[in-house]
Amino acid sequence: MRGVKKEVFSYFALGVVLFFLLNLSDTAMRKIRGVFIFGSKLYAARGVSDEELELMQLRIENEALRGQISQVRDWLKDEERIDAFCKRLSEWRDDKGFEGFYKRRIRDFTEMLAMQIHSVEAKVIFRDPAFWSSGIWINRGEAENRRLGRRIIAKNSPVIVGDCLVGVVEEVEESRSYVRLITDSKLTPAVRAVRGGEANNHLYDLASELSEEIELRDDIEKKEVILTTLKIFKDHLLETRETRYLAKGELRGSSYPVWRERSDLLKGIGFNYEFADEEGGPMRIHEQASKMILKKGDLLITSGLDGVFPKGLCVAIVKKIMPLKEGSFSYELEAKATCPTLSELSVVRVCPPL
Fold first, then answer.
1. How far apart are CA 166 and CA 127, in angstroms?
2. Best CA proximity match to 322, nearest among 344, 284, 296
3. Dihedral, CA atoms, 10, 13, 18, 24, nearest 10 degrees?
4. N or C: which end of the chain has fewer CB within 10 A?
């Protein structure tokens, strides 16, 4: 009888502990995980020789050097991207064929350019292995705001890599901040599908980066043929200048903060074009073919309707569209995040909050 009571008490105590842990805030959970991870590392370091410690130190220094090189390359790419922004704005102002359309694009791109100019570069300093796709810690906080004399890093500051959205600042401390990634299920940016010129511009940027990487390699066979083919492809992408702005909806991450999951897959909900806006009239789902408002390969960009993210940031590419459910007025979909380094982030840019 005593053994049965002891067993019942053990299960009751376990239930109380689990209930307590499940109701803790995200901040408290991260601190508890940090303590356990730090303790496990100390335990693993027992009995390590001086030679092994020196080798570990060399590896750390090597990784730091690689990070600095990557940071310089990212900085150069950001400078080139801002120049490309200015060039695109100049071309639009000279084009009288789609005056109303480009007037809106100039307005959105001017806001985007101002945001990028006033953004702050930050280095990723910690990423919880148990919650890999949920968030990151960066090395910028309130101290950086005081140094700049303006509030750049704040709650709801968008975080980007190039022109791709990667997350939003959720906590700001003195010298560090926590960023929730778009792959986390709790973050739901409002987006819309685009097709044509703007989607091609994103593909053009990717092709340009690939060309740059290939040019640096001397061990690639038929290098000139590949580069020539890429140039022809890039020229072809620039032929289509008009962009179609189509279905609107929301995205959310597919990974739940329970285990380490390196997933760049996003879930889309509520996609339709039921109401007219400045980009065009409504397209009823049951009157138009689904591919008219949404199809595989469409680029999903921020629509600005959530009040957190500015218009025009690349978020994902449509990968799969679910069959329309009976009686439903919107589509669900799967999409792949556009940021190619989302699983291995090292440097990001923090933009001023809206």
1. 14
2. 296
3. -160
4. N
pLDDT, one tens digit per residue, over 38-77 is 555 555 555 556 676 667 677 766 666 555 555 555 555 5
Cβ–Cβ under 8 Å, residues 120 and 350: yes
> Encoding tokens for residue 335?
């999409």
pLDDT at 8 over 70: no
Residues whose CB is less than 8 angstroms from the CB of residue 314 and which lie 6 or more positions away in sequence, other chains included: 163, 164, 165, 202, 299, 300, 301, 338
Minimal CA–CA distance to 310: which of 95, 159, 97, 142? 159
Which strand (E) or helix (H) includes residue 117? helix 99-117
Q: Report pLDDT digits (tens) over 230-274.
A: 888 888 877 766 778 889 999 998 765 444 455 678 999 999 888
76, containing H or E segment: helix 50-94
Q: Whose structure tokens read 């380094």?
A: 341
Range of the domain at 116: 51-354
Residue 7 domain-assigned (yes or no): no
- Give the chain's domain count: 1
What is the average pLDDT across 330-343? 89
H-assigned helices in 149-278: 197-215, 223-237
**73 within some domain:** yes
* pTM of the complete model: 0.71
**Do residues 151 and 352 make contact, with C-beta atoms less than 8 angstroms apart?**
yes
For every residue of 8-69, DSSP letters joined together read HHHHHHHHHHHHHHHTS-HHHHHHHHHHHHHHHHHHHTTT--HHHHHHHHHHHHHHHHHHHH
Q: Is residue 28 part of a domain?
A: no
Q: For residue 123, which of 135, 144, 142, 137 has the smallest C-alpha distance?
A: 137
Residue 55 maps to a domain? yes
Contact between 170 and 141 under an 8 Å Cβ cutoff? The reply is no
CA separation for the pair 31, 128 (Å, rounded): 11
